[in-house]
Description:
104 residues, mainly alpha, 4 helices
Amino acid sequence: MSNPRPDPFTAPLEYAPRSAWNRECTACGACCSAPDITALEKPLGVPCVHLDAGCLCQIYLQRPQVCRNYDPDWVCGEVAPLPTLEGRIGKFLEIYGLLEELRH
């Protein structure tokens, strides 16, 4: 018998638990801004050019597969409440240990 897939909304022990009620995208823009997205030639820590001022994707129906494959998880609960996109990007990069890479 295989192990069940862990709940992606369960934060690691070093993070405070988050509500499991919100399991949908919060349109915070972090996943479209913090990681590099090679398919869109988007560098690390820079908002995607297709992200509008309201943090919505302007090419949503034609977005690349890498974007389609991204699922909300516990990280969203850490970054979405932050008041600015810049703050959300910073926290996302911090969680994934990418702040140093951004500085180079």
